[in-house]
Design brief:
Blueprint: E1 9-13, H1 16-26, E2 30-34, E3 41-45, E4 53-57, E5 75-81, H2 84-96, E6 101-106, E7 110-116, E8 122-128, H3 137-140, E9 145-146
Parallel strand pairs: 1-4, 5-8
Antiparallel strand pairs: 2-3, 3-4, 6-7, 6-9, 7-8
């Protein structure tokens, strides 16, 4: 067996309407299923496949994601362009939407912005740095630096 690609991510959310607004209006995913009143799920796609993200509402009384070191997902990354100019535009869009940035990093191979969705799931929005050789293990292991856009 071999994995061909990461197919999709499923997240439990406390409020489907709030999460739909975030992933559709802030992140820019296309909603392919959901949105009907009382429907506790929503499915999104970037157009690469039938869906890359599925949200399932579990209600406001569900346990929140614990803070600090824990077992489980740290974050998931979404490629948002190919240049720093595109990443700057993403940053401006995020700020205009009133979403607070959690961090920004230059990983040598990617330039990345970090933020949280309404339930505290962390997202990395990134661009690959042009000309980087992903087969160069030294680049992959380079220390993280502050990102200056």
């Amino acid at each position: 067996m071999s994995v061909k690609e990461l197919g999709h991510i499923v997240l439990y959310v406390s409020d489907i309407d709030k999460s739909v607004a975030f992933y559709r209006d802030v992140i820019g995913f296309n909603m392919v299923l959901g949105g009907e009143s009382g429907m506790p799920v929503a499915m999104f796609s970037s157009g690469r496949t039938h869906h890359e993200l599925l949200l399932i509402q579990v209600g406001r009384d569900a346990k929140p994601i614990p803070s600090g070191r824990r077992v489980g997902m740290y974050h998931f990354g979404l490629k948002v362009g190919d240049t720093d100019d595109e990443l700057r535009a993403v940053l401006a869009h995020i700020r205009a939407a009133g979403v607070q940035l959690a961090g920004a990093s230059d990983h040598t191979v990617t330039h990345s912005l970090y933020l949280f969705d309404p339930d505290g799931n962390e997202l990395e929005l990134y661009v690959d740095v042009p000309g980087v050789d992903w087969n160069d293990l030294a680049s992959l292991g380079a220390p993280t630096k502050a990102l200056h856009l």
